[in-house]
Amino acid sequence: MLKCKDVVTNATDYIDKEMSWSQSMSMALHLLLCGHCRRFIKYFKLSLLSLKKKRTISSENATQLGSEIIAKAQADT
Ligand SMILES: [Zn+2]
Fold first, then answer.
1. Ligand 1 center to 34 CA (angstroms)
2. Which domain holds residue 29?
3. Which listed residue, of 28, 69, 70, 76, carries a Cα 20 to 30 Å from 12's Cα?
4. What's the predicted TM-score (pTM) here?
């Protein structure tokens, strides 16, 4: 079973579908059970999509962005 931390770490790959079937199933299962990560992925996907329209995003930027979105998602509770 994945931890929330693993979901955050793998969020970019999950959204870009750059992971194996079993990895993506583990992510999907965690998201099914964890409302925090569902919200995180939702915000993360939206932010990533809007960023990608403007410029390419490096994985360091994506991780940085991830932390910002977590903070935002938690404040949003
Ligand atoms: Zn979680």
1. 5
2. 4-75
3. 76
4. 0.65
- Does residue 47 contact residue 69 with C-beta atoms inside 8 Å? yes
Distance of CA 11 from the midpoint of ligand 1 (Å): 11
Let me know: does 37 contact 30? Beta carbons within 8 Å: yes
Per-chain mean pLDDT for the chain = 86
Q: Measure 37 CA to ligand 1 centroid, in angstroms.
A: 4
Work out how many domains the chain is built from and give that number: 1
Q: Half-sphere exposure of 22 toward its Cβ, with a 13 Å CA cutoff?
A: 1
Q: What is the pLDDT of residues 9-35, one digit of tens each?
A: 999 999 989 999 999 999 999 999 999
56 Cα: distance to centroid of ligand 1 (angstroms): 27
Task: Kindly give the distance from the C-alpha atom of residue 6 to the centroid of ligand 1, in angstroms, as a whole number.
Answer: 8
